[in-house]
Amino acid sequence: MTQNRTTRLERGRGALGPALELVHTGRAPTRAVLTSELGVTRATAGAVAAELEALGLITVDSRPTASAGSQGRPSHRLFIDERGPVVLAAQIHADGYRVALVGLGGRIVATAAGCGTIPADPAHVLAEAVAAGSALLRESGRRCLGAGLAVPSAVAEPDGEALNPLHLAWPAGAPVRELFLRALADAAIPGVTERIGFTGNDVNLGALAEHRHGAGRGARDLLCVASGHRGVGGALVLDGRLHSGSSGLALEVGHLTVNPEGAPCHCGSRGCLDVEADPLAFLGAAGRTPGPEGSLLHQSVDLLRNDYADPGVRAAADLLIDRLGLGIAGLVNILNPDRIILGGLHRALVETDPERLRAVVADRSLWGRSGGVPILPCSLDHNSLVGAAELAWQPVLDDPLVVVDR
């Protein structure tokens, strides 16, 4: 490295993390944009990009070409290195688990799933999921820099306990982070130690992924509501940052009452979104008995998409949309988000009949009539997995030089 480049890099070393995050989230597609976003000289931005390329995290187009109609000097394009390192992401849900290798940019490189009854001892399924992820890593030959886990429960901070895994047989307060770290240590995955495994609520992590890479990109105050394999969850991004409350327990929207005379909820109340607007509720309203094959989420989405012309299925969809709209309207009144995104079965519902849902929210919320809060389907497949990967990538985004030590 020349002395001039060394000097420029030293001046820009503090910009390595911000620069990588800009490329990671797609906000700096070229070196010119990177220069502008970082507020540094062109030479410094070039040195920073070169260092990130030397670390094996990005690639820089060596022969820039001007786009059609553009003026001035063409800029080098910046890309995530497609053969770069990955992190291991795992998601536990009521019908099994899914694991994935996820690169920078939120790109899923490989994935595998396991279905079946989740045992009452979380250690068993976590060990099985980590073993499946380890097999993916061996097959891929990719370098792994960390691991993240998404679970269908509020996760208390800082200890990482699953406080209310209502749709699993796990005990309340199960130490999922500790068990996940132990499974990682037992698997002895090269590059992954028990110090770099991270855990969070599945809907929170889905919202984080959508905000960085999907339908929530660019929103300042983003509300996410999603029905997983069972139940309903919510998440909130405020001023660009995930809001999890003082101890990780914020936005338990599944326990908003939308039908006071409705079904008993696992929380002890009645008529909560959790039991009135999830896949099991939809199948029941449509008069369908859950089958033995496939998850409840997949069965309900397939029914909605393939048999919507059936009057019973359409009536069930209308019922769930109305219940969901009541819940969202109350949240809009309290939170005043600038965008709402819906995941899981709710994603399929808004894709099927977007106007009905928007009308219910507008009719029931103070602000729905003026301006209209955009309500959009989530755009990422497996967004909770991508969000779990975001937890694992965050130390690298904070300081890309940590890759040298892993």
Automatic annotation (TrEMBL):
UniProt signal peptide: none
Listed PANTHER family: BIFUNCTIONAL UDP-N-ACETYLGLUCOSAMINE 2-EPIMERASE_N-ACETYLMANNOSAMINE KINASE (PTHR18964:SF149), ROK (REPRESSOR, ORF, KINASE) FAMILY (PTHR18964)
InterPro entries noted in UniProt: ATPase_NBD, ROK, WH-like_DNA-bd_sf
Matches recorded under Pfam families: ROK
Protein name: ROK family protein
Family to which the UniProt record says this protein belongs: Belongs to the ROK (NagC/XylR) family.
Top-level division of the source organism's lineage: Bacteria
